[in-house]
């Protein structure tokens, strides 16, 4: 097999998984990440799916216990009254973004992980493709893997598509044991908990705590999201405007949140939610708000360029497998390249149809979940069509 030179743009879950599996497949791989610093600071929760942890379990000495906490149930409550709406047995494990990121980065190393490289332009080609970065540098490779996330510059340039606002936002936060009452802390252990409302929902689950060096400490914290329907226009603009007056496109993080947004967030929790949900939400010292949006794509392969992960299909988060889809895109790409003995174009042609099918089926699934969860539809405990994970394409 020839040794393709591969440039991966974006160094998160999709990019790092791709970098590892393609390097293991014999490619010469460099990663180009926009951020100036490593991404270990993001500690929000992720439900473990097999595809997400496949690299760590198969190719490193990491075990599930090293990076995740187990649970035994999915529990459903009316978040306003606190009444139980059902419970089913479910053995999900929960991890934190930075636990996965750090392990994938440890496996790849930092020598060929280039920070401060913001993609600004792509030149696709049949012999090679090249990528230009904001710092004026450029890289040419046999294959460029675009893993630059939901706001993908690559997707915009190749397909002129951006994610569409889904009509709601998610408030997210994490609490440590000291932030909430003992009753609230105990209530949310050992389960994935839904708090259902007529026009929104809350999810909460325990996750591993990770140190600033990316090491799992052995302690846990609670991670939650509270989804609010917010009309596009003035109401959304107001919520997404930071205290420096700038309208943020995706998220407003804690120190930048306006006092009026925080007041509304805590005020609604106090007036609308049952005590355990109220205590959880108001206990978060640094909540933040993120727009929910999704993107659909008709194409993922372009001669010697591939779109993977959220840079291709950006799914809403409800089936907890966006990161798993990102990792699975990367595995399939490496497997196709091996199958094609390093012939990049042949590999991409073989790789694309199934990945498009998975992306489309997953998007349909999370949109159906959103219709039930955000607009008062039926969300029966344990419904198989709403089970977390990637669908198998027909
Ligand atoms: C609220 C929420 C909850 C979620 N919960 C789950 C869950 O429980 N389980 C799950 O599997 N998934 C979950 N997801 C989805 C998951 O976070 C994404 O699907 C996953 O992170 C996609 O990985 P990615 O590497 O494709 O993109 P990202 O993680 O978005 O990474 C993109 C990377 O590209 C970099 N980048 C961006 N632009 C450029 C540029 N121009 N040049 C160079 N680099 C660039 C970014 O800095 C970043 O490092 C959730 C998502 C949200 C919003």
Radius of gyration: 21 Å
Helicity range of the residues? 25-40%
CATH superfamily of the largest domain: FAD/NAD(P)-binding domain
Q: Taking strands numbered 1, 2, ... along the chain, how are they ordered across the largest sheet?
A: 6-5-14-15-16-13-18-17
Number of distinct beta strands: 20
> Any idea what the CATH architecture of the largest domain is?
3-Layer(bba) Sandwich
Low-confidence stretches: none
The total count of helices amounts to: 11
What does the main sheet amount to? 8 strands, mixed
Structural class: alpha+beta
Number of domains: 2
Description:
By secondary structure, this protein is α+β, with helices and mostly antiparallel strands. The protein has two domains: 167 residues, FAD/NAD(P)-binding domain; 149 residues, D-Amino Acid Oxidase, Chain A, domain 2 (2-Layer Sandwich). It is built from eleven helices and 20 strands. The strands form four sheets. Strands 6-5-14-15-16-13-18-17 form an eight-stranded mixed sheet. The radius of gyration is 21 Å and the shape is globular. The site of flavin-adenine dinucleotide has 38 residues, from helix 1, strand 3, strand 13 and helix 10.
